[in-house]
Amino acid sequence: MSSLLEQEIHEQPQVVARLLEREAERARRIVADLPAFTHVLIAARGTSDYAATYAKYAWAALARYPVALATPSLHTLYETPPRLDGALVVGISQSGQSPDIVAVLADGKQRIARRSP
User: In angstroms, rounded to a whole number, what is the distance separating the alpha carbons of residues 83 and 24?
Assistant: First the structure.
């Protein structure tokens, strides 16, 4: 008898295939609606940093954009956020409520709002 963890690991290919089949069109629409960008900045904390590190390598290899991990504490603790001009800002969060990640995303939205006519 295998463990639940082992079963879930073996199910991953089928789960990913179903997800891609079900969400591919939505992903295409999202990508088509993205503003112009020159690089990607991913904001994540805790275990979401692992997903962000994986995304950094995958997106850089597949899309050929420079990808970096954000420095969320610059936005909150030090109140000296870096310029986000030209960045596609992406947040990865299990709860969606981490103040650091929310602050980075809010700064990214302000950048887009400033560019809009």
Answer: 32
